[in-house]
């Protein structure tokens, strides 16, 4: 499922400040970007269908990104909050 070329992924890493980049690093980032892109696109398609449209619009993509972002961060923050509460309870 290699949809993204390696060279633009390398430029993304360079723009982040890297002086040199291994081919393995470019391929690893490419896989992550493709997987995340596919997940966002799949969610956007579902949102468009739910709205009765065949066309995926910018608002579908933005909503898919927000759903994924907030789902991940809400779960992580809830986990951290519960651990912090337990630690504070035990040591106070």
CATH superfamily, please? Histone, subunit A
Oligomer: single chain
CATH topology: Histone, subunit A
Could you tell me how far the N terminus lies from the C terminus, measured between alpha carbons in angstroms? 52 Å
**CATH architecture level-2 label:** Orthogonal Bundle
The unreliable regions are: 87-92
Would you state the CATH class? Mainly Alpha
Count of DSSP-assigned helices: 3
CA radius of gyration: 19 Å
Count of discrete structural domains: 1
Succession of helices and strands? HHH
Q: What structural class results from the helix and strand content?
A: mainly alpha
**Mean pLDDT over the full residue set:** 84
Strand content: under 5%
The count of β-strands is 0
Please describe the biggest sheet, giving its number of strands, its sense, and whether it closes into a barrel. Answer: none
Give the % helix. Answer: over 70%
Write the SSE topology.
Elements: H1 6-15, H2 23-50, H3 58-91
Task: Write structural notes for this entry.
The chain has 92 residues and is an all-alpha fold. It has one domain (6-91): Histone, subunit A (Orthogonal Bundle). The chain is 78% helix and 0% strand. The chain has 3 helices and no strands. The protein has helices spanning 6-15, 23-50, 58-91. The protein is elongated, with a radius of gyration of 19 Å. Mean pLDDT is 84; it is low at 87-92.
């Amino acid at each position: 499922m290699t949809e993204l070329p390696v060279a633009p992924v390398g430029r993304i890493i360079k723009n982040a400040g890297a002086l040199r980049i291994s081919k393995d690093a470019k391929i690893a980032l490419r896989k992550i970007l493709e997987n995340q892109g596919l997940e966002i696109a799949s969610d956007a398609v579902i949102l468009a269908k739910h709205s009765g449209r065949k066309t995926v619009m910018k608002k579908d993509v933005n909503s898919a990104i927000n759903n994924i972002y907030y789902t991940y961060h809400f779960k992580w923050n809830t986990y951290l909050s519960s651990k912090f509460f337990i630690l504070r309870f035990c040591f106070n």
